[in-house]
Write a structure and sequence with these properties.
The protein is an alpha/beta fold. The chain folds into two domains: 28-339 and 472-506, Alkaline Phosphatase, subunit A; 351-468, Gyrase A, domain 2 (2-Layer Sandwich). 32% of the residues lie in helices and 18% in strands. A ten-stranded mixed beta sheet has the order 6-9-8-7-12-1-13-21-2-22, with helices on both faces. Strands 15-16-18-17 form a four-stranded antiparallel beta sheet. Helix 12 packs across helix 14. It is globular. GO terms for molecular function: alkaline phosphatase activity. It holds the Pfam family Phosphodiest. Residues 1-19 form the signal peptide. Its EC number is 3.1.3.1. It is an enzyme of class 3 (hydrolase).
Length: 521
């Protein structure tokens, strides 16, 4: 009797467990990457927000306050590549938006490829320098190419790296013409976007576009502000730079929404039971890449307008797809435009670091040590590239030259540490080196990586893009919103490489091929 009762209970228990269906895969996964989004600004400016943007995300989403990139010197391109591949530049190859090319002795863009022409642009573009798969690629593989994958961004690198190797299309704004452009790598340019370019692209409306404060200027009290009058920007007056200025303003996010709505209306994305992917990029950085001290009011207004853009996007997804059918992932690129140097009255230690002078003196030192020759082939982004061909011809030991060069460079004012390629590839492991190693790729990074002291300004040759070094971490959020996701705010840091396996798990596909991280719970 007891045996039969126990058997019946077990059968009912395990039978009911097996009968529970898995939650359905979302019809549409939307990844919203917001360039330079900061947690502190997102929270501090909350009195400027409505109820349907950031506040809704905080009420209904799973919010991680601090998402960490596990490699040094992240920028927009390396961050987006890490988000979509679930791994670091040491594996995916995207060490930065640009790096030094020893073949041409000039910097090259991470999505340059001369084999593919552009649509509505003269740039030759493809994702061929991305060395691993993305979750967008894995979605295409899992569905035998049936899933639709589109990416829309203000920037070329963001669009292409988000669409991956197998996407249906990557679209970005031409910074010279104001038209939406793409690359022949992804095949035929879509008819609906051609129609959009013929009558709705920003070049038709740039004359009327004007950026003024959204709220009374007395509302902008969160950052130090020296002005007492509101700002006013008319992009048409910027002549050749009008579209470049537009994409560094919050008005560009409304342009993202306009194209997104056209895509949702005129394509089949999100309209069947096969999961599709839509990758969108917003901008939340400084206007015209100026420091926050110069544009404090603009930065606060940027977040107020960003709040409205997010609200409009959520309403659009609700009306056209249904939020119950959407998994939304919002992430930041994990860095911010640098501020200017602190003025002298505060007496904070600092100085100017000139990479070109370091490279010149290093070459003189190596000539004195090893004989005549151009030992330094080039320099870029705090990295120095040695002339491997010359070193091989002279039958010198590359590792020895790298070590001697590092010992020479570390003596310069403003230099904290110098890492050699040999040390990063084959040297002993140390915890403080992990970030450097993760950001280093043996075929694309320099022979010498220079770490400059905090407070020092890295001076760029032939450029005004001088950067003040700050070692302090900028907290950047990660937000997940969708059916079955429990709303909560998590204060423990989370590694950004867990985004790719998490979204892959939700879509019931493999994680990208170089991803080793576990999905978020």
């Amino acid at each position: 009797m007891k045996k039969g009762l126990i058997t019946s209970i077990l059968a009912l228990t395990f039978g009911s467990l097996q009968a529970q269906p898995l939650p359905p895969s979302p019809k549409l996964v939307v990844t919203l990457t917001i360039d330079q989004l900061r947690t502190d600004y997102m929270e501090a400016f909350s009195s400027l927000y409505g109820e349907k943007g950031f506040k809704r995300l905080l009420r209904e989403g799973k919010v991680f306050r601090q998402a960490d990139y596990s490699f040094n010197v992240a920028d927009r391109a390396s961050a987006i590549a890490a988000l979509y591949t679930g791994t670091t530049p040491s594996m995916n190859g995207i060490i930065a938006e640009r790096w030094f090319d020893p073949k041409t002795l000039r910097p090259k863009n991470c999505v340059d490829d001369s084999a593919f022409m552009g649509n509505y642009t003269d740039q030759n573009t493809a994702p061929t320098q991305l060395l691993t798969s993305t979750f967008a690629d894995e979605l295409k593989i899992a569905t035998k190419n049936a899933a639709l994958v589109y990416a829309i961004a203000p920037f070329r690198d963001a669009a292409v790296l988000s669409a991956g190797h197998s996407g249906n299309g990557a679209f970005w704004l031409n910074h010279q013409t104001g038209k939406w452009c793409s690359t022949t790598y992804y095949g035929e340019y879509p008819w609906w976007l051609s129609q959009y370019n013929d009558g709705q692209s920003p070049d038709f409306r740039i004359k009327e576009m004007e950026w003024n404060p959204l709220h009374p200027i007395t509302s902008y009290t969160f950052l130090p502000e020296w002005r007492t009058i509101p700002f006013k920007y008319r992009f048409e007056t910027e002549k050749d730079n009008k579209y470049r200025r537009l994409i560094t303003s919050p008005l560009i996010n409304d342009e993202m929404n306009r194209v997104t709505e056209d895509l949702l209306d005129k394509s089949n994305i999100g309209k069947d039971d096969i999961t599709d992917l839509l990758a969108i990029t917003y901008y939340a950085g400084n206007y015209n890449h100026r420091s926050t001290q110069e544009c404090a009011m603009e930065m606060q207004d940027t977040y107020a307008r960003l709040d409205q853009s997010i609200a409009r996007l959520l309403d659009m997804l609700e009306s056209k797809v249904g939020l119950q059918n959407v998994l939304l992932c919002i992430a930041s690129t994990g860095y911010a435009d640098p501020d200017g140097a602190d003025i002298g009255i505060y007496r904070i230690p600092g100085g100017e670091f000139h990479l070109n002078r370091c490279a010149t003196l290093l070459n003189m030192y190596l000539m004195a040590t090893y004989g005549e020759g151009q030992y330094v082939e080039g320099f870029y982004n705090q990295q120095i590239y040695l002339n491997h061909k010359l070193i091989e011809e002279k039958q010198l030991n590359l590792a020895e030259i790298q070590q001697k060069s590092a010992e020479f460079l570390v003596q310069f004012s403003g230099v904290n540490k110098v890492y050699s390629a040999y040390q990063l590839l084959l040297g002993s492991w140390a915890p403080q080196m992990e970030h450097i190693r993760n950001g280093f790729h043996r075929h694309r990074s320099g022979d010498l990586i220079i770490e400059v002291l905090p407070g020092w300004t890295v001076m760029q040759e032939n450029s005004n893009d001088n950067r003040v070094v700050r070692a302090a971490t900028i907290a950047t959020p990660l937000i997940l919103l969708g059916k079955g996701i429990k709303p909560e705010i998590i204060r423990m840091p989370v590694a950004i490489d867990r985004v790719a396996p998490t979204l892959s798990s939700a879509m019931r596909i493999r994680a990208p091929n170089a991803c080793t991280a576990a999905p978020l719970n």
